[in-house]
């Protein structure tokens, strides 16, 4: 190992591994590593958990930090001695003149001997004695070091600010999460209260309807008994002698005339719905942009150019009789196919009194009459009133007011379908555990117009229209 390597190794032994400068007020820890006191304290401030040695990651306690005065003295001596040692091994003999190179040419950045200085090649160059040139550059180096130190302090300040912000960030996320949880808890409580009130209202409506039906049952039973008594009385009159029968018949018919004029009445059920807070906004998160499939449309259905609406036409259109087209049912399918996920779309029915909307399997029969066993799940409006009928289900729901816009929600994975009054946020009917299998498509249909039905168009609501 040459002298220069020994000098560099000495410097490395006298250098702090944190700041990479000569030790200043050095301390030694129990693992044997040395650091500047300020550097070690800064590392301690930046530690989030247990303070560990920057070299070996061993845990450091306060009692483990001990001043190292001998190392401090040795470091100061090595710092002052190093330039002289380097200079002593740097002076070499000039290859041309055999003299020691004691001068430095700033233009050529090379060492010169006294004879080289007098040569024409360096006549106009700035040539300084080696120590003077070294002093000049030492001043520049010190100035650069001072600038670097200031920059380092600036970056340390910035690092301290980032460290503090990290702590604040942890506190902030905890606070924000607590606030969000609190707000959602309030919303949950509000919705639970609303749900409880809604269920109480439905229970009361059930009691009222049940009371009405019981009264209706009692009245019909009484009427049946009255009719049975009248029947027995009349049958008894048939067994009487003609004169007696004639004398009693007038009184018998008179007593039962009012009974004969009575008609059986079946009580209608009244269910009043209420809007569900936030329902419409939640459903629109799953809104799908639905368009009509012209290849499936019955020839009597006239589709708009944008495939967003259709109406009934008296004269069938001249269209190809392809296998996808309905030839009997006045139906058309949506162009979109669903095999998974949640989907929501809205249909504007306006004042039309007869319509069918919902979903069906892609394999639904297109030719001939649809049977009750077809894989179609729909909401139906009839002339005699409003009726929610889900094909292939024994359940149905009546409602007693017209609906302008129908919302349809499909959760394929949960086998669930629901129908809504999209304008008011009311639930019309909801069905779960449906027999979904294979691709599903939106389904739309009209009934043949007559004197009691209202003509018009069925329109799909665009994404932007319903916002």
Overview of the structural elements:
Strands 7-8-19-10-15-16-17 form a 7-stranded antiparallel β-sheet, with no helix packed on it. It has a 6-stranded antiparallel β-sheet with strand order 9-18-11-12-13-14, with no helix packed on it. Residues 388-394 have low confidence and may be disordered. The longest helix is centred in the middle third of the chain and has 109 residues, at 130-238. The protein is built from 7 helices and 19 strands. The chain has helices spanning 3-13, 37-46, 69-90, 114-117, 130-238, 242-261, 279-283; strands at 26-28, 34-36, 66-67, 103-105, 110-112, 127-129, 301-303, 309-312, 331-333, 342-348, 355-361, 376-382, 385-389, 396-399, 405-411, 416-421, 426-431, 440-446, 457-460. α1 (3-13) packs antiparallel against α3 and α5 packs antiparallel against α6. The radius of gyration is 49 Å and the shape is elongated. With 467 residues, the chain is an alpha+beta fold. Helices cover 39% and strands 19% of the residues.
Features:
six-stranded antiparallel sheet; single chain; 7 helices; elongated; 467 residues; alpha+beta
Compose a concise summary of this entry:
This protein has helices at 3-13, 37-46, 69-90, 114-117, 130-238, 242-261, 279-283; strands spanning 26-28, 34-36, 66-67, 103-105, 110-112, 127-129, 301-303, 309-312, 331-333, 342-348, 355-361, 376-382, 385-389, 396-399, 405-411, 416-421, 426-431, 440-446, 457-460. It has 467 residues and is of the alpha+beta class. Helix 1 runs antiparallel to helix 3 and helix 5 runs antiparallel to helix 6 (242-261).
């Amino acid at each position: 190992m040459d002298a220069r390597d020994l000098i560099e190794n000495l410097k490395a032994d006298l250098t702090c591994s944190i700041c990479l400068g000569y030790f200043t007020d050095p301390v030694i820890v129990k693992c044997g590593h040395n650091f500047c006191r300020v550097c070690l304290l800064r590392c301690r401030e930046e530690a989030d958990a247990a303070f560990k040695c920057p070299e070996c990651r061993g845990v450091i306690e306060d009692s483990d930090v001990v001043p190292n005065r001998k190392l401090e003295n040795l470091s100061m001596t090595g710092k002052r001695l190093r330039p002289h040692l380097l200079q002593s091994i740097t002076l070499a003999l000039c290859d041309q003149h055999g003299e020691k190179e004691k001068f430095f040419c700033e233009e050529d950045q090379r060492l010169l001997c006294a004879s080289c200085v007098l040569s024409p090649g360096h006549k106009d160059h700035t040539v300084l004695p080696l120590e003077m040139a070294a002093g000049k550059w030492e001043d520049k180096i010190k100035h650069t070091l001072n600038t670097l130190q200031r920059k380092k302090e600036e970056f340390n300040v910035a690092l301290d600010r980032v460290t503090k912000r990290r702590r604040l960030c942890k506190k902030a996320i905890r606070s924000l999460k607590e606030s969000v949880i609190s707000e959602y808890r309030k919303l949950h409580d509000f919705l639970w209260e609303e749900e409880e009130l809604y269920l109480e209202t439905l229970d009361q409506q059930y009691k009222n309807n049940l009371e009405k039906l019981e009264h209706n049952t009692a009245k019909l039973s009484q009427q049946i008994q009255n009719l049975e008594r009248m029947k027995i009385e009349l049958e008894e009159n048939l067994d009487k002698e003609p004169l007696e029968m004639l004398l009693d018949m007038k009184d018998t018919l008179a007593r039962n005339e009012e009974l004969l004029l009575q008609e059986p009445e079946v009580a209608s059920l009244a269910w009043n719905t209420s809007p569900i807070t936030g329902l419409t906004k939640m459903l629109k998160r799953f809104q799908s942009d639905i368009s009509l499939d012209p290849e499936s449309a019955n020839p009597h259905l006239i589709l708009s150019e944008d495939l967003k609406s259709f109406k009934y036409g008296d004269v069938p259109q001249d269209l190809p009789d392809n296998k996808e087209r309905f030839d009997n049912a006045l139906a058309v399918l949506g162009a979109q196919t669903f095999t998974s996920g949640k989907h929501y779309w809205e249909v504007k029915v306006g004042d039309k009194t007869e319509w069918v909307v919902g979903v069906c399997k892609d394999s639904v029969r297109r030719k001939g009459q649809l049977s009750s066993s077809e894989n179609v799940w729909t909401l139906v409006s009839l002339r005699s009133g409003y009726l929610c009928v889900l094909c292939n289900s024994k359940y149905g729901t009546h409602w007693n007011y017209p609906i302008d816009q129908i919302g349809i929600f499909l959760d394929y994975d949960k086998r669930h379908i629901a129908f809504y009054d999209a304008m008011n946020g009311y639930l019309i009917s909801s069905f779960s555990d449906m027999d979904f299998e294979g691709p599903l498509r939106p389904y739309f249909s009209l009934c043949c117009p007559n004197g009691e039905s209202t003509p018009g168009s069925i329109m799909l609501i665009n994404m932007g229209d319903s916002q």
